[in-house]
UniProtKB/TrEMBL annotation:
It is found in: Membrane. Keywords: Lipoprotein, Membrane, Palmitate, Signal. Its main location: membrane. Belongs to the NlpA lipoprotein family. This is MetQ/NlpA family ABC transporter substrate-binding protein. Residues 1-21 form the signal peptide. It comes from Paenirhodobacter populi. It is a lipid-anchor. GO terms for cellular component: membrane. It comes from the Bacteria.
């Protein structure tokens, strides 16, 4: 049974439900749908699981830290690291989930080597996702980043840009809309699918992959319950269920280029 979307003001609602073996917090879309699929299997095996959807990216960690959730499943390691640094929450990853690949997209060019001198390239403006986009540009051979910055680079860390590309920073959710205004854009396939443009989602000129596991979604728990055997059991169900894999595949427009399952790669 999936509960309604909650915001920070709705946390008190959680206490209205009786104690259960596990309560997992998620965000809508592929994550919620795949966790609900696993929860259905878990219930059939005698493990009671409630799935609670949140409409923002702040409340799931607050609810977990408060003890209103047993785990959440919405964030990658980079996001968790930043959240822990800013809040002091005692939260830790306890299992790998789906890795949403990112891509480099263009509506004007069919190959990366067609990009002209001075082309405008859009990447995410936030430090968590922007660094990932710049790292993919480096993988594509378009720029070179300062040694050692990895996926934490910023435009200031670009030390070689032979074709003088203009790097434009745009809020991540707006990159889909910005695609028609630039020559190349970092993109999230799921965002294209959600915007009704699944045909674009599958046409990136380059995708990230399993080497990008730092950005795989994690099951996250508190330090005091990270060894909960019921939680470990649920994660095993999630990772081994054919029905979960089928749901993930469906959510990503049946295109395996749009995601990776890092626990089996």
């Amino acid at each position: 049974m999936r509960l309604p979307l909650l915001t920070g003001l709705g946390l008190a609602i959680l206490t209205a439900f009786p104690a259960t073996a596990l309560t997992i917090g998620v965000t809508p879309g592929v994550l919620a749908d795949s966790v609900e699929t696993a929860a259905t299997e878990a219930r059939a095996q005698g493990l009671d699981v409630k799935v609670v959807e949140f409409s923002d990216w702040t409340t799931p960690n607050l609810a977990l830290d408060n003890g209103d959730l047993d785990a959440n499943y919405f964030q990658h390691q980079a996001f968790l690291d930043n959240a822990v640094k800013e809040t002091g929450y005692k939260l830790v990853p306890v299992g790998l989930g789906v890795l949403p690949n990112i891509g480099l997209y263009s509506e004007k060019y069919a190959a990366l080597d067609q990009l002209p001198d001075g082309a405008r390239i859009a990447v995410a403006s936030d430090p968590v996702n922007g660094g990932r986009g710049l790292a993919l540009l480096q993988t594509a051979g378009l720029i070179t980043l300062r040694e050692g910055v990895g996926v934490k680079g910023t435009p200031d860390d670009i030390i070689a840009n032979p074709k003088n590309f203009q790097i434009i920073e745009i809020e991540g959710p707006q990159l889909v809309r910005a695609l028609s205004d630039v020559d190349l854009a970092q993109g999230y396939p799921a965002h294209f699918v959600n915007a009704g443009r699944a045909d674009i989602a599958g046409k990136a000129l380059l995708y990230s992959g399993v080497d990008d596991t730092y950005f795989a979604i994690r099951f996250v728990a508190r330090e005091d319950n990270k060894d909960d055997p019921d939680l470990a059991r649920f994660i095993r169900i999630y990772q081994t269920s054919p029905a979960v894999r089928e749901q993930i595949h469906t959510s990503y427009a049946n295109d395996p280029a749009l995601y990776t399952l890092p626990w089996i790669e």
